[in-house]
Amino acid sequence: MVYRSAFPMLICDDLARSIAFYCDALGFTVTYRFPADGDPAYVAVDLPDGSKLGLGQVAPDGKGVHGLPQRPTTGHAFELCVYHDDVDTAVADLERRGHPVLQAPNDTPWGERIAFVADPDGNPVMITAPA
């Protein structure tokens, strides 16, 4: 047996707000939603290059289908790296949309320009490009 693909799934406190961040601000497209009608409990989103994320609403009982608690979390177990052609322009747009900038754009010793913003649940999202 060979594993063929993987993608991270985020549990969101406010799914609609997270969908807006990942789709409207970062350019993902919703490719699947459950349930199909009404407010979704889960959506899959993709970027044009095939990168995928799953976004799910915290369950009403606070437990996932695996039975483990979804909240509270401690620290940030998740960070997302998203490539963009122009880090400064991308971060300025995200800030204009009201998303907190955690670290302003800067050049790294390993040859990338990076910045960090927070998604609606406070997860760090690194915006990066070659320096």
| Strand residue content | 35-45%
Count of alpha and pi helical runs: 2
* Biggest sheet character: 4 strands, mixed
CATH class of the largest domain: Alpha Beta
Number of strands: 8
* Fold-level CATH name of the largest domain: Signal recognition particle alu RNA binding heterodimer, srp9/1
Which CATH architecture of the largest domain?
Answer: 2-Layer Sandwich
Number of domains: 2
Strand arrangement across the biggest beta sheet: 1-4-3-2
Give the overall silhouette. Answer: globular
How big is the Rg?
A: 16 Å
Q: In sequence order, what are the helices and strands, one letter per element?
A: EHEEEEHEEE
Q: How much helix is in the residues?
A: 10-25%
User: Cα distance, first to last residue?
Assistant: 40 Å
Class derived from helix and strand content: alpha/beta
Mean pLDDT: 91
EC number: 4.4.1.5
GO molecular function, one term: lactoylglutathione lyase activity
Protein name: Lactoylglutathione lyase
Pfam family, one: Glyoxalase
